[in-house]
UniProtKB/TrEMBL annotation:
<protein>
    <recommendedName>
        <fullName>DNA polymerase I</fullName>
        <ecNumber>2.7.7.7</ecNumber>
    </recommendedName>
</protein>
<keyword id="KW-0378">Hydrolase</keyword>
<keyword id="KW-0238">DNA-binding</keyword>
<comment type="similarity">
    <text>Belongs to the DNA polymerase type-A family.</text>
</comment>
<keyword id="KW-0234">DNA repair</keyword>
<keyword id="KW-0540">Nuclease</keyword>
<dbReference type="InterPro" id="IPR019760">
    <property type="entry name" value="DNA-dir_DNA_pol_A_CS"/>
</dbReference>
<dbReference type="InterPro" id="IPR036279">
    <property type="entry name" value="5-3_exonuclease_C_sf"/>
</dbReference>
<dbReference type="Pfam" id="PF00476">
    <property type="entry name" value="DNA_pol_A"/>
</dbReference>
<keyword id="KW-0239">DNA-directed DNA polymerase</keyword>
<comment type="function">
    <text>In addition to polymerase activity, this DNA polymerase exhibits 5'-3' exonuclease activity.</text>
</comment>
<keyword id="KW-0548">Nucleotidyltransferase</keyword>
<dbReference type="GO" id="GO:0006261">
    <property type="term" value="P:DNA-templated DNA replication"/>
</dbReference>
<dbReference type="InterPro" id="IPR012337">
    <property type="entry name" value="RNaseH-like_sf"/>
</dbReference>
<dbReference type="GO" id="GO:0003887">
    <property type="term" value="F:DNA-directed DNA polymerase activity"/>
</dbReference>
<dbReference type="Pfam" id="PF01367">
    <property type="entry name" value="5_3_exonuc"/>
</dbReference>
<dbReference type="InterPro" id="IPR018320">
    <property type="entry name" value="DNA_polymerase_1"/>
</dbReference>
DNA sequence: TCAATTTC
DNA sequence: GAAATTGA
C-alpha cells in the first residue's frame, strides 16, 4: 500500500513562481493551478499510490504563534494573483474526490507529519511532496520526502529517505530539527542562536546528536563567542527546537477510506477545468463521460419537425400572450438556416427546417410574433437579422435596405450577448454556456462538448449530430430566456440600464443597417494601385538585396534583423524577446547613417499598403460592388465598436501614398459623401470631466488646443509658440488622453525620460484640476474595481491590485484612459443612433455607412444634402451636453479622401 | 503566437 | 490607451 501526500501551499507556490502567469478570459489567474495539477498528475503516475491527500494551511494563528508571537512574522503577504488561486485549486481537488485537509490552529506540515506517521504505522509506503525542506525531518526508511525543482531542462525531483538525508547532510532527519534550532530559519522567523550558522549547527549536531547533548557538553567545547551565545540563549534554542518540530499528533479525524485514490477525472472536475480554461488538461478527461451534463433541463428539450405542430406552437404563443421568448437560429457559414430554437422558460423546442417547415416560413413566423409584440431575445441579434435578410424576397430586402431592419424584421428584439458585454466588456466571448454558468449557476455543454472537434457549421451538415444540434440550440434559447432578466437586473443595479436600452440596443439596429448598406468600392482602381505598388516594391527589393549582398525575406523580422545587425554590422540594434527589433521607430534612428534602412522602411510601407489594403480589400467587394464590413459591438474593453472583414477603421489617411486608398470608396449615383468628424472629442471630454477651467477656457475661446497647451506648459505667449513646442504639447495631450507614462511620452517625442516627466509635471500645473481628476480616476477605479464613463459604462481594472509593478502601472493608465475613451465612444454612439433614426424619420434616403471612432460617413443624396448636413450637425453636436461645445468638421466629396 | 503596421 | 490584419 502506498500513500501520497502533497503540501498544497508549497507546491502551489512553486508553480506560481516557476511558471509564466496564465489568465483565463474572465481575467482569473490560473497559472499556479495549472502547474499544481500537472505536478500532481506526474506524482500520481510515478508513484501509483492507493491513497492520496493534500494538506493546506489555513489563515489563522497556530499553536506556534501562541508560543512565539513573531513566528513567521517576516513572511510577506501572498500575492493577490496567487491568493485567488488557493480556493480554486481546493475546489478542483474536491471535485476530483481528493481530500483537502486543513485544520485551524495547525500547519500543513503537522497534518502531513501526522498522516505520514499514521500511514507508516499502518505499514504503508509514504511519499510527501513539498517544495519545502522543513519537511525533511519527517523522512524515515518508509517515508520519502520528494522535492520537485523546476529547472530549465524540466522538473527534477530530489528524493530523500532517512538514509539519503543522512548521506547528504551528515545528520539524521530528526537531528535536522536540532540543526534548525541552532541556526534558526529566517523564512519562518525561527530565531535560533545568534552567531550560529549552517556550518556550526551541522558540526555540533553531527558531533553531539542534539541541542540537549550540546548543552550538556558545553564545558568540553573550545572557548568561543558562539558557545557563550549558546549558553546565554539556551531558552531561545529550546523554543526554536519546539517551533521547528513538526507535530506528529495533530488531532486529525479522517473517515475510514477517505484518502482512497479514486477516479480524478470526474465530470465536475472537467467542468471546472473548462471554466478556468485549462485547455491542456482537458484531454486527460478523455474517458470521462462529459457529454452528459449535471443540468437536466435538456431532458425536456423537444425537437419538432411536424408542420401542424409548429403551426399550433406559434398559435399558442400568440394566444397565451407570451411577452418574452428566448430564441436562437442555427446556421453555418453558408448562412443557410437549419432551424430555430425557442424557449419561454417552461418549454424549449427546436424547430427543424425540413419538409413544409422552410427557413422562409420559420423566419416569417418569428417576424410575425415579434411584430405582434412578443419580445425575442437572441444571442448576436445583428447576425440573426442578417441571416433572416438573406432568405427574404427581393421586395422585402429592398424594404429592409430603405426602411431599416428594426421596423422590417424585429421591432422588438433584444440581444443577451450585448447585455452580458455591458456587464463585463473585457471577456473574449459571450456564449450561452459562459453566461449560463455565470448568471444562472448552471453548467451546460459548450459547442465543443456537443460537437467534439467539429464546429457548429460542420455539425449542421452532419445528420448524426442532429441530436447535439438540437441540444445546443435549445440551450441557447433556454439560457437567452433565463439569463436575460438576471443580466438586466444586474445592469440596472449597476446603473447601466440607460446605456443598454437607449444606446446599445438602438445602436445594434443602426449598425445592422450600416452593414446592410455597405460602401461602394472600385475594385479595378484597387487592382491598378496594387500594380503600381508592385513595380516600386520590386525596385526596392532589388535595391535592398544589392545593399545587403544577398537575397532574403524582407518581411521576416528575424531574417532582416540578422542581415542588418549581424551581416552588415549596423550598430545600435535593440533586442526583443526573440531577436533584434526591426520596428519602424528603431530603424528610423539608424536611417541617416545607413541607406539600406530607408529602402526597408519604404518597402515595409508599400508592402503593408499592398497586402492589407490594395490586395486585401479586393476580395471583400460583394456582388453588389459594395463592401459590407461587420461592426463588432461586444469586443472592446472601453465601449468602442470595432470593424472586421474588412476593418474599415484603419484605412490609411496620414501618408500621402496611403491615403490614395480612400479614393476607391465612392458614393453611389446621385449621391455625395458627407463626412463629419468630432474635433478633439477626447480632449473635450477630458475638459468636461476634469472641470479644469484652463482647458475649458481654451476650448471656449476656440483656441488651437495644442498651441494653447504649449503656451501654458512652456510658459510662452500664445502667438510665440514654436512648431516644436506645439508638437511636444500635442504629444503630451495625446499622452494624457491615453493615460500618460513618462516613458511612453519620452519615446514618442524623442526626449529623455526626465524631460518627459517635466513636461507632464508642467502640464499638470498648467491645468490645476487635471491632477486631482486623474488621481481621482485611479483611486476610484482601485476602490470600485472598475473604471467608469460619464454615462456609467464600466470596465473592470483588476490590474490595479496586481503585485507586479508593471501591471499595476498598466492598470493606472487604463483607469485614466478608459473613462475618456469610453465616454467619447458613448457620445458618438448616441450621435450615430440619432443621425440614423432621424434620417429614417424624416423620410430621407441618405444612409449612414461608416463610423471611425470620431467620424461618421453618410452617403447623401444630392437633393437631400442640405437637410442631411443639418441632421448630422445637429445630432452630432447635441449628442451630449458638456461644459464645452462639441464641434464637428464636415466635408463633402465624391470619394472618401475628398470628403475627409 | 509574435512582430509589425495601420487607424482613432 | 483601444483595435484588426498580415506574414513568418
Amino acid at each position: 500500500m502506498k500513500l501520497l501526500l502533497m503540501d498544497g501551499h508549497s507546491i502551489l507556490n512553486r508553480a506560481y513562481y516557476g511558471l509564466p502567469d496564465l489568465t483565463n478570459s474572465a481575467g482569473e489567474h490560473t497559472g499556479a493551478i495549472f502547474g499544481f495539477l500537472n505536478m500532481m498528475f506526474k506524482f500520481i503516475e510515478d508513484e501509483q499510490p492507493d491513497n492520496f491527500a493534500v494538506a493546506f494551511d489555513v489563515h489563522a494563528p497556530t499553536f506556534r504563534h501562541k508560543m512565539y508571537d513573531a513566528y513567521k512574522g517576516t513572511r510577506k503577504p501572498m500575492d493577490p494573483e496567487l491568493r485567488e488561486q488557493v480556493p480554486r485549486i481546493q475546489e478542483i481537488l474536491k471535485a476530483m474526490g481528493v481530500p483537502v485537509i486543513t485544520m485551524e490552529g495547525w500547519e500543513a506540515d503537522d497534518i502531513l507529519g501526522t498522516l505520514s506517521r499514521i500511514g507508516q504505522e499502518k505499514g504503508m509506503d509514504v511519499t510527501i511532496v513539498s517544495g519545502d525542506r522543513d519537511l525533511l525531518q519527517l523522512a524515515t526508511d518508509k517515508i520519502k520526502i520528494s522535492i520537485p525543482k523546476t529547472k530549465k531542462t524540466g522538473t527534477e525531483i530530489e528524493n530523500y529517505f532517512a538514509k539519503d538525508f543522512e548521506q547528504a547532510y551528515g545528520v539524521t532527519p530528526k537531528q535536522y530539527i536540532d540543526v534548525k534550532a541552532l541556526m534558526g530559519d529566517s523564512s519562518d522567523n525561527i530565531p535560533g542562536v545568534a552567531g550560529i550558522g549552517e556550518k556550526t549547527a551541522f558540526k555540533w549536531i553531527a558531533q553531539y546528536g542534539s541541542i540537549e547533548e550540546c548543552h550538556a557538553h558545553v564545558s568540553e567545547m573550545k572557548k568561543a563567542k558562539v558557545v557563550d551565545n549558546f549558553i546565554e540563549q539556551w531558552d531561545t534554542a529550546v523554543l526554536s527546537k519546539e517551533l521547528a518540530t513538526i507535530n506528529l499528533n495533530a488531532p486529525i479525524e479522517l473517515e475510514e477510506g477517505s484518502t482512497k485514490l479514486g477516479n480524478l477525472f470526474t465530470e465536475e472536475a472537467y467542468l471546472l477545468c473548462k471554466r478556468y480554461e485549462l485547455k491542456k488538461l482537458l484531454p486527460r478527461f478523455e474517458n470521462t463521460d462529459t457529454a452528459s451534463v449535471t443540468d437536466n433541463t435538456a431532458d425536456s428539450f423537444k425537437r419538432v419537425n411536424d408542420f401542424s405542430e409548429v403551426e399550433t406552437f406559434f398559435e399558442d404563443i400568440k394566444k397565451t400572450g407570451k411577452a418574452f421568448i428566448g430564441a436562437s437560429i442555427m446556421a453555418g457559414d453558408d448562412k443557410v438556416i437549419r432551424g430555430a430554437a425557442l424557449s419561454d422558460g417552461e418549454s424549449t423546442v427546436y424547430v427543424e427546417c425540413q419538409g413544409f417547415i422552410s427557413a422562409d416560413y420559420l423566419c416569417h413566423k418569428l417576424m410575425e410574433i415579434c411584430k405582434a409584440g412578443v419580445r425575442l431575445c437572441f444571442w448576436d441579434l445583428k447576425n440573426v437579422m442578417h441571416l433572416i435578410t438573406n432568405i427574404l424576397s427581393d421586395d422585402e430586402k429592398k424594404a429592409v435596405m430603405e426602411k431599416g431592419g428594426k421596423s422590417q424584421i424585429f421591432p422588438n428584439a433584444v440581444d443577451v450577448s450585448v447585455a452580458a458585454y455591458l456587464l463585463n466588456p473585457t471577456k473574449k466571448e459571450y456564449t450561452a454556456d459562459d453566461v449560463a454558468n455565470e448568471m444562472l449557476g448552471i453548467i451546460i455543454p459548450a459547442a465543443a462538448d456537443l460537437f467534439g472537434k467539429k464546429k457548429l457549421k460542420d455539425a449542421l451538415l452532419d445528420d448524426s449530430l442532429l441530436e447535439a444540434v438540437t441540444t445546443y440550440a435549445c440551450y441557447e434559447a433556454y439560457v437567452a430566456y433565463g439569463a436575460f432578466e438576471k443580466v438586466m437586473a444586474e445592469i440596472e443595479a449597476a446603473g447601466m440600464g440607460h446605456i443598454f436600452t437607449d444606446i446599445e440596443m438602438p445602436l445594434l439596429y443602426t449598425l445592422f443597417d450600416m452593414e446592410i448598406q455597405g460602401i461602394a468600392m472600385d475594385k479595378e482602381a484597387l487592382a491598378q494601385f496594387s500594380q503600381k505598388l508592385s513595380t516600386r516594391i520590386e525596385e526596392l527589393e532589388k535595391d535592398i538585396y544589392a545593399q545587403a549582398g544577398e537575397e532574403f525575406n524582407i518581411n521576416s523580422p528575424k531574417q532582416l534583423g540578422v542581415i542588418l545587425f549581424e551581416k552588415m554590422g549596423i550598430e545600435g540594434g535593440k533586442k526583443t524577446k526573440t531577436g533584434y527589433s526591426t520596428a519602424a521607430d528603431v530603424l528610423e534612428e539608424l536611417a541617416p547613417a545607413n541607406p539600406i534602412i530607408g529602402s526597408i522602411l519604404e518597402y515595409r510601407q508599400l508592402a503593408k499598403l499592398k497586402s492589407t489594403y490594395a490586395d486585401g480589400l479586393q476580395p471583400c467587394v460583394g456582388e453588389d460592388g459594395r463592401v459590407h464590413s461587420t461592426f463588432m459591438q461586444t469586443v472592446t474593453a472601453t465601449g468602442r465598436i470595432s470593424s472586421i472583414e474588412p476593418n474599415l477603421q484603419n484605412i490609411p489617411i496620414r501618408m500621402e501614398l496611403g491615403k490614395e486608398i480612400r479614393r476607391v470608396f465612392y458614393p453611389k449615383d446621385g449621391c455625395v459623401f458627407l463626412d463629419a468628424d468630432y474635433s478633439q472629442i477626447e480632449l473635450r471630454v477630458l475638459a468636461h470631466m476634469s472641470g479644469d477651467d484652463n482647458l475649458i477656457g481654451a476650448f471656449k475661446a476656440g483656441q488651437d488646443i495644442h498651441r494653447s497647451t504649449a503656451s501654458l506648459v512652456f510658459n510662452t505667449p500664445f502667438d510665440q509658440v514654436t512648431d516644436l513646442q506645439r508638437r511636444s504639447a500635442k504629444a503630451v495631450n495625446f499622452g494624457i488622453v491615453y493615460g500618460i507614462s513618462a516613458f511612453g511620452l519620452a519615446k514618442d517625442i524623442g526626449v529623455g525620460r526626465k524631460e518627459a516627466q517635466e513636461y507632464i509635471d508642467n502640464y499638470l500645473k498648467a491645468y490645476p484640476k487635471m491632477h486631482t481628476f486623474l488621481e481621482g480616476l485611479k483611486s476610484s477605479a482601485k476602490e470600485k474595481g472598475y473604471a467608469v464613463t460619464l454615462y456609467g459604462r464600466r470596465r473592470p481594472v483588476p490590474e490595479l491590485n496586481s503585485s507586479n509593478f508593471m501591471n499595476r502601472q498598466f492598470g493606472e493608465r487604463v483607469a485614466m484612459n478608459s473613462p475618456i475613451q469610453g465616454t467619447a465612444a458613448d457620445i458618438i454612439k448616441i450621435a450615430m443612433v440619432k443621425v440614423h433614426d432621424r434620417l429614417l424619420a424624416e423620410g430621407l434616403k441618405s444612409k449612414l455607412l461608416l463610423q471611425v471612432h470620431d467620424e461618421l460617413l453618410v452617403e447623401t443624396y444630392i437633393d437631400e444634402q442640405e437637410k442631411v448636413e443639418s441632421v448630422i450637425r445637429e445630432e452630432m453636436e447635441n449628442a451630449a451636453e458638456l461644459s464645452v461645445k462639441l464641434e464637428i468638421d464636415m466635408n463633402e466629396g465624391s470619394n472618401w479622401l475628398e470628403a475627409h
